[in-house]
Amino acid sequence: MADTAKTRRSALTVEVTSHTRRPIRAVGLASWLSRAAPARVRGEVSVALVSDARIRALNRRYRGLDYATDVLSFPAADGGPAPGGSAGVRRAPAAPRAAGRDEREPSGGAPFLGDIVIAVGVAARQAAVAGHPLGTELRVLALHGLLHLAGHDHEQDQGEMAALEARLRLRGGLRTGLIERAVPGSARKERRS
Asked: Left, alpha or beta for 15 (phi > 0: left; psi -120 to 50: alpha)?
């Protein structure tokens, strides 16, 4: 059973669903991500909270990597290989139903930007290490995944994604972001989870 939360603002609609044995209630995640998103990001985004086994299967299928990562981004319009991110984040090739999403037309005519898939178990372990609640970690991961959906790639740019993530996370009340945690002082290296 999926626990669904939706929020709307003129630019971004976020739908959060839980596809875990025990549904996770990510209270406020949809509205927070909508408010924290860059103003130019317009459309609809799906955030799926999944088990570590599910994200491991997606990671293996779309990236050829057989481990549970924390977050994957699946752009709706992108059909080819996509740039990477810290902690194993990847903008994977478009994958209808990748997160259990039905194939539907976006409501209100807004473009569907893609899916962000977050492994709840990995997120919980990372939250414990970082010393903050699971809800905070879900926000860190959702923001990072959204920036990948928006076309940013911290492995290829010259620090632009890291700078944008830092501005948005501070505006959203987050102390640290995924890029900063991956390798302190470097937004260009990748840490494996």
From this structure: beta
88: pLDDT confidence band, cut at 50, 70 and 90? Answer: very low
Instruction: Decide if 180 contacts 162 (C-beta within 8 A).
Output: yes
Give residue 76's identity as a one-letter amino acid code.
Answer: A
Count the Cβ atoms, other than its own, within 10 Å of residue 40.
Answer: 7
Whole-number Cα distances in Å, 54 to 67, 119, 125, 156: 10, 8, 16, 28
- Pick from 51, 12, 17, 48: nearest CA to 31: 12
Structure tokens at 10: 């003129």
- What is residue 50's predicted lDDT score, i.e. its pLDDT? 96
What CATH number did the domain enclosing 96 receive? 3.40.390.30
Identity (one letter) of the amino acid at 52?
D
Chain-centroid distance of CA 105 in Å reads 21
Q: Distance between CA atoms of 71 and 123, rounded to whole angstroms? A: 9
For residues 116 and 48, is the Cβ–Cβ distance under 8 A? yes
Q: How far apart are the first and last CA of the chain?
A: 28
Number of folded domains in the chain? 1
The predicted-structure confidence for 110-149, as pLDDT tens digits, reads as follows: 799 999 999 999 999 999 999 999 999 999 999 999 999 9
Q: Residue 151: inside a domain, yes or no? A: yes
